[in-house]
Write a structure and sequence with these properties.
Layout: E1 4-7, H1 11-24, E2 27-33, H2 40-44, E3 47-52, H3 63-73, E4 77-79, H4 89-97, E5 101-102, H5 107-114, H6 116-125, H7 141-151, E6 155-163, E7 166-171, H8 174-192, E8 197-201, E9 207-215, E10 221-233, E11 236-242, H9 249-265, E12 270-278, E13 284-290, H10 297-304, H11 308-316, E14 333-340, E15 342-343, E16 349-350, E17 353-354, E18 357-359, E19 366-370, E20 377-378, E21 385-393, H12 396-409, E22 411-413, H13 419-426, H14 429-432, H15 440-446
Parallel strand pairs: 1-2, 1-4, 2-3, 4-5
Antiparallel strand pairs: 6-7, 6-8, 9-10, 9-12, 10-11, 11-14, 12-13, 14-21, 15-16, 17-20, 18-22, 19-21
């Protein structure tokens, strides 16, 4: 059994991993930046080592310093969480070469699914539907325009190495395409050090639905149902729920089987997520695979009763999954709201600073994953998320009511947060009726007065 795990991350996911390790009797090593010396994951881990300055580029993205900490503390495994180095194939390869277990997929699988053009080709060969588009990266504007015309406008230009909405642009005709093609390439080069882009048909107002995958090293690949992530702003998810209010049982079954085929095609191990776009007619298309644990994994945990972080560790330890597809049941409905230190009334401006009062909601069917506390200072160097509110019940109506109640109890003073925004969404008829698409947030913000979020 793995004896000690280095957690190469920060914030709520680092805490989540520490808690899973404690239940499994595994020691933990927290690595942290100078800005995170007072963070809860540093206080609660068995050991902690500072690995650099406050910026991610000086600490959490420094593979050399993380590996040095692993050697000093004599750890057996590294859990990367999400973000930072979690989908870095070279880092996973380093762990493998140093005989340290990387709690995630093999580096080869990360490479396959990390290149979106290669990933698309891989799953297409496995019979998984993909969005019509270029066969791979498009090198010149002339070639790109020809492909765009063949696909048919509107099209979306995407960074091959992209994520988080960066290097992603929409074009509606030849004129706008010429501009957006070069903007996307420049954004991709700055964000990822790789300016390659590919082109797909742009599906207007789809649902963004992802399937959670678990796979062991003995050939078993399972899905744990879907999460509807359609409520997002600038391709950043804000609210996730399971099950999706849009999917029929038949469509859920088809998409689940397709997700498993996609993971099998990449010889995948550990936890991962297959992401799809679903149009109004129920046609679904693979868009990418996230080769790591997702921010929204608690939604699936509450619906299925399966601890995904524990399963990640057990799979990395070489154990077989202790259940089959037929054993997985979906007995609840769960909704997650990402609580960000942002001001929705000021175009979601970041709101770092000291929290003067922090009170998390509780009660039946309420879970809060957060590293925040009264007196904690949110640094300006990282992602703005300070917590996740997950509420669940026997059906969607109960989950909605519980989420609104919990948001009404959630107190964070000293900074601005997205709590008022989430409350407004929970009482919005379009969301209540389960009709939100990826265009929902833009439409919602255009018809909602900003002072409602103050």
């Amino acid at each position: 059994m793995i004896q000690k795990i280095l957690i190469a991350n920060r914030g709520e996911i680092a805490l989540r991993i520490i808690r899973a390790c404690r239940e499994l009797g595994i020691k933990t090593l927290a690595v942290y930046s100078e800005a995170d010396v007072q963070s809860l994951h540093v206080q609660l881990a068995d050991e902690a080592i500072c690995i650099g300055g406050p910026r991610g580029s000086d600490s959490y993205l420094r593979a050399d310093r993380i590996m040095s900490a692993a050697e000093i503390a004599d750890v057996d495994a590294i859990h990367p969480g999400y973000g930072f180095l979690s989908e870095n194939a070279k880092f996973a390869e380093q762990c493998e070469s140093c005989n340290i277990k990387f709690i995630g997929p093999k580096s080869k699988s990360i490479k396959i699914m990390g290149d979106k053009a290669v990933a698309k080709d891989t799953v297409r060969k496995a019979g998984v539907p993909t969005v019509p588009g270029s066969d791979g990266p498009v090198e010149t504007e002339v070639e790109a325009v020809k492909i765009a015309r063949k696909i048919g406008y509107p099209v979306i230009i995407k960074a091959v190495a992209g994520g988080g909405g960066r290097g992603m642009r929409i074009a509606h005709n030849d004129v706008s395409f010429a501009k957006e093609y070069h903007v996307a390439r420049n954004e991709a080069e700055k964000a990822f050090g790789n300016g390659a882009v590919y082109i797909e048909r742009y599906i207007e107002k789809p649902r963004h639905i992802e399937f959670q995958i678990l796979a062991d090293s003995h050939g078993k690949v399972l899905h744990l149902g879907e999460r509807d992530c359609s409520v997002q702003r600038r391709h950043q998810k804000l609210i996730e729920e399971s099950p999706s209010p849009f999917l029929t049982p038949d469509l859920r079954k088809k998409m689940g089987k397709a997700a498993v085929r996609a993971a099998e095609a990449a010889a995948y191990e550990n936890a991962g997520t297959i992401e799809f776009l679903v149009d109004a007619k129920g046609n679904f298309y693979f868009i990418e695979m996230n080769t790591r644990i997702q921010v929204e994994h608690p939604v699936t945990e509450e619906v299925t009763g399966i601890d995904l972080i524990k399963q990640q560790i057990l799979v990395a330890n070489g154990e077989k999954l202790g259940f089959d597809q037929g054993d997985i049941t979906f007995n609840k409905h769960a909704i997650e709201c990402r609580i960000n230190a942002e001001d929705p009334a000021r175009n979601f401006a970041p709101s770092p600073g000291t929290i003067s009062l922090y009170y998390a909601p509780g009660g039946h069917g309420v879970r809060v994953d957060s590293h925040a506390y009264s007196g904690y200072t949110i640094p300006p160097y990282y992602d703005s998320m300070i917590g996740k509110l997950i509420c669940y019940g026997r059906d969607r109506k109960t989950a909605l009511e519980r989420t609104y109640r919990a948001l009404s109890e959630y107190l964070v003073r000293g900074i601005k947060t997205t709590i008022p925004l989430h409350k407004a969404i929970m009482s919005d008829p379009v969301f209540i009726e389960g009709k939100a698409t990826t265009a929902y947030m833009e439409e919602f913000m255009s018809r909602t007065p900003p002072d409602l979020f103050s």
